[in-house]
Amino acid sequence: MLRSLGAVGDRWREPVFLAATGGALVGGGVAWLAGATAVADGFWMAGTAVAVVPAVVWVVAALRKGRAGVDVIAALALAGTLAVGEYLAGALIAVMLATGRALDAAAERRASRDLRALLERAPRSARRRSGDEVVVVALAEVRAGDVVVVGPGEVVPVDGRVRTGPAMLDEAALTGESTLIERGVGEAVRSGVVNAGGAVDIEATATAEDSTYAQIVRLAEQAGAQRAPVVRLAERYAAWFLPLSLAVAGAAWLISGSAVRAVAVLVVATPCPLLLAAPVAIVSGLSRAARQGVIVRDGGALERLGRARTLLLDKTGTLTTGRPRVLQVAAAPGRTPSEVLRLAASLDQMSAHVLAEAIVGEARARGLALSAPREVTEEPGRGAAGVVDGQRVRVGKTVTPLEARPGWARAADNRAALDGAAVAWLTVDDALSGAILLLDPLRHDAPRTLRRLRSAGIGRLLMLTGDRAEPAREVAAVVGLDEVRAEQLPADKVAAVRAETSRAVTVMVGDGVNDAPALSAADVGVAMGARGSTASSEAADVVLVTDRVDRLADAMEIAVRTRRIAVQSAAGGMAMSLAAMVVALLGRLPPAAGALLQEAIDVVVIVNALRAVLPRRGARPVLEPATEDLIRRFAAEHDDLADVLDAVRDAASLLAVEHGPRVLGAVREVDRLLTERLLPHEYAEEHELYPALAAPLGGGEATATMSRAHSEIDRLARRIATHVKVADTAGRLRPEQLEDLRACLYGLHSVLRLHFVQEEENYFSLAP
């Protein structure tokens, strides 16, 4: 209860201080206008006296910590005005001091960091098996060798090994990887992962206290406790401004023999530009960041972000979307990719698996009519089976050995290995009929974001991920990272963050519970809060409310600009104060006039600092609502055209192994898709989207390269159409056509993939 009352008192301390000093200044002004000068002096003296006590307390507290901050000048000026009877000057200084403190407190008050989400997620009990009986016991009672039962959706309470399997596990809490992992009998399982399949028995290999999840909680607590306190920007300038001000005041007293002149110097030396500039600019920066969907917990975090030089990022859910998407649909001879996808999605409608959700979503995006499955069963780790349109269908893993698979299936396996993709195999009436490759795609705005971060001052970009090395390196190559560290456990991430923070101000970005310790260990922790875990958001200094990584670049640019404005305001204010000190030294500026001049300087400083709340000119293109609608429309069309790209690639692959009627049919289908769907899309982009983007992007040159790509796409499409006409005339593909036709198909596929990615990165990422 006392602690709660103390917190309330702390919250209202600065507002009460400001109200008291402001009321004294206004009350004295009213009395002075009424001719009651003695009453006015009484008000102003009271306001000055009210400020002297906390000013002295702050000075003593700073001296105990080995710092002589700028508050020393304020305390001396307040005491000096009381000593020489310059009460109005004292009251003005008191108001300025109280205003600075109130603004500083407002910037810092939003700080809150706890590990509630980590602790709430941790299991408190376990179901221990004893023979045929299952008993619920406190988690602390579980010992190594005990067998615990983990039901569907439950968190594995202790480290152990699978006793009855296979176990389908969601390990995102530890690795950040969204794909479910299958663990067979005897394989190790770490605490903190979620059972995504049926109930399994786990033989404990450690107690709860020694298990992985408990270590994550301890790491986060230790990392948070080791954070250095925030040092106010003003105090960095006090090292030279304080002794200089005292020297000038002493010189004024020695030269003139007048204490009033020394007080006048201290009045204009009162570091209100230092006390006001940084808090005003930082509060303005916090407000600006919030408008962009970025919540910064305190002013210290914003100031540190503005000085950051190293950025560490998680992969899954940060640089990638965290949601698997269909990369390619491969079909056996006699079947089409659309048919394979439709059958698989029809069955997977009944599954809650993350890959099944992606398959169904892709089929619906392509407008495929799904059938209602019957007799559906699902085996964790193996996939789903059922009857679709009278056919026995299975989607998931295949039991066909690699060496016994046909050529098309081995090609799909090869591509999955190269791209780091998962494969869902389609079996129809016990015959391998298709394969669906799924991949967690890179965010469209990731490459642009990292380029903007480098422009904002980040010199080193490093990925820390629990994922495998191959997909991690591929993502890093696309976005241009300096270093990749894969298969990282939470402890590894914390160690890497600490190593980087010892060299430069470091930012860590993540979205999972496994990232919370690393976020706490960094100078600035950034959480992808829109879909990330509560634990990562609680452990972070900065939370991106929207599911867009480009908001990180917005936050960085706002922080850099805010810090620059704060420094500019403080330096400019000090320069004007130094000039006023010289005038006071010469006896041309009495204390009251000096206080009013200092007020004018403060107004200039505050107005300049308030610029931080405004957007930087040219920070991002301003799009009309109609242009944003066009971007969304063409982005959706890109998704719809995925099957066209598949058809082009499949026809090229087929042409490499045979030249008969089936190949000619595939090429005819490609020509139809290009004519009816792809080319109209490219034409509409050229004549609707690109003109709309020209003005916000600074002219037609911004889209000139993409227009050239449209010309190349059109050229290749017309060349393929010519091949079809020649083949139709001859009734078959001529031998002399094969090489050029194959080159056209592979070339078109490559150009389209690159062109789509460039448009998505450069144009589609501009729209909310």
Characterization of the model:
The two termini are 46 Å apart. Among the domains are: 124-207, Distorted Sandwich (Calcium-transporting ATPase, cytoplasmic transduction domain A), CATH 2.70.150; 325-439, Calcium-transporting ATPase, cytoplasmic domain N, CATH 3.40.1110.10; 625-766, Four Helix Bundle (Hemerythrin (Met), subunit A), CATH 1.20.120.520. It is α+β, with helices and mostly antiparallel strands. The protein is built from 26 helices and 22 strands. The longest helix is centred in the last third of the chain and has 36 residues, at 550-585. Helices cover 57% and strands 14% of the residues. Strands 10-22-21-20-11-18-19 form a 7-stranded mixed beta sheet, sandwiched between helices. The model is unreliable at 1-9, 110-116 and 223-231 (pLDDT under 50). It is found in: Cell membrane. It is an enzyme of class 3 (hydrolase). Its EC number is 3.6.3.3.
Provide keyphrases for this structure.
Four Helix Bundle (Hemerythrin (Met), subunit A), six-stranded antiparallel beta sheet, Calcium-transporting ATPase, cytoplasmic domain N, 26 helices, 22 strands, single chain, disordered N terminus, 768 residues, Calcium-transporting ATPase, cytoplasmic transduction domain A, seven-stranded mixed beta sheet, alpha+beta
Structure described in brief:
With 768 residues, the chain is an alpha+beta fold. Among the domains are: 124-207, Calcium-transporting ATPase, cytoplasmic transduction domain A (Distorted Sandwich); 325-439, Calcium-transporting ATPase, cytoplasmic domain N, CATH 3.40.1110.10; 625-766, Four Helix Bundle (Hemerythrin (Met), subunit A). A hairpin with a 2-residue loop joins strand 14 and strand 15.
